Structure to design on (212 residues):
C-alpha cells in the first residue's frame, strides 16, 4: 500500500481541516481538495491510468451528526483539479463502494494497538463486482498510524481489488517516513510540502507484489 500526503497535521493545515470538519466551513473543501490533488499527483508515474477513487466512509450516525463526509468532499475537489492538471488520468469517484459497518470510537488519543483493534472489521465492500480487478485510490483527510487505511484497504483487497493506493491531506508527525518528496513549489504558505510514505505492500494475492 502506497500512501501519500500533502503535509503534516499541524499549523495552518490542521486549522483548515478543523474548519471544514467541525465548523462546516465548506468553501475550505475546494482549496484543501487542490492540496490533496498535488499529493495524489505524486503517484502519476506509478499508479495505473485508471483509478477508482473511494473516500473512507463515515458510519451513518457520524454522517448524520456531521452532515457530510469530509473525505468525499476532498476527493471530489481533488478529482476536479486532477482532471485539469492530469487530463490523461481517468479518475472515477465511487463514494458508495465501501461501507462502515459500525460506529467506532474516535481514534484520537488511542495507542497504535488500540487504533488497530478499534477499526478491525469496521469496513465492508457493498458491491464486490464494482471493485473486482480495479485499482483503488483510497482517500481520507488524516493519516496517523495507518490503522484506518489498512483496515479499509484490507476490505477492498478481500473483495478483489487489484491494488490500493492511499492519499490523505495530512499525516501525523509521529509517522516516520522512509522517503520524502518536496513539493515546495506547490505548497501553500505556512504549510509543509507533500510527503510520501511506503506502508505495507497492498496488492491482491495474484499480483507479483507481497500480499498484505
Amino acid at each position: 500500500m502506497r500512501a501519500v500526503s500533502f503535509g503534516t497535521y499541524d499549523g495552518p493545515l490542521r486549522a483548515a481541516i478543523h474548519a471544514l470538519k467541525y465548523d462546516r466551513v465548506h468553501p475550505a473543501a475546494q482549496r484543501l481538495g487542490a492540496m490533496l490533488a498535488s499529493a495524489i499527483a505524486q503517484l502519476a508515474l506509478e499508479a495505473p491510468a485508471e483509478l477508482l477513487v473511494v473516500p473512507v466512509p463515515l458510519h451513518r450516525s457520524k454522517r448524520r451528526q456531521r452532515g457530510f463526509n469530509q473525505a468525499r468532499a476532498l476527493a471530489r475537489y481533488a478529482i476536479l483539479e486532477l482532471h485539469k492538471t492530469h487530463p490523461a488520468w481517468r479518475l472515477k469517484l465511487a463514494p458508495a463502494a465501501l461501507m462502515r459497518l459500525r460506529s467506532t470510537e474516535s481514534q484520537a488519543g488511542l495507542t497504535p494497538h488500540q487504533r488497530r483493534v478499534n477499526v478491525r472489521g469496521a469496513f465492508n465492500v457493498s458491491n464486490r463486482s464494482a471493485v473486482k480487478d480495479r485499482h483503488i485510490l483510497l482517500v481520507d483527510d488524516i493519516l496517523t498510524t495507518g490503522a484506518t487505511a489498512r483496515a479499509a484497504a484490507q476490505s477492498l483487497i478481500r473483495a478483489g481489488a487489484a491494488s490500493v493506493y492511499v492519499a490523505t491531506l495530512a499525516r501525523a508527525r509521529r509517522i516516520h517516513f522512509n522517503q520524502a518528496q518536496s513539493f515546495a513549489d506547490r505548497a501553500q504558505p505556512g504549510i509543509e510540502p507533500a510527503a510520501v510514505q511506503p506502508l505495507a505492500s497492498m496488492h491482491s494475492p495474484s499480483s507479483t507484489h507481497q500480499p498484505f
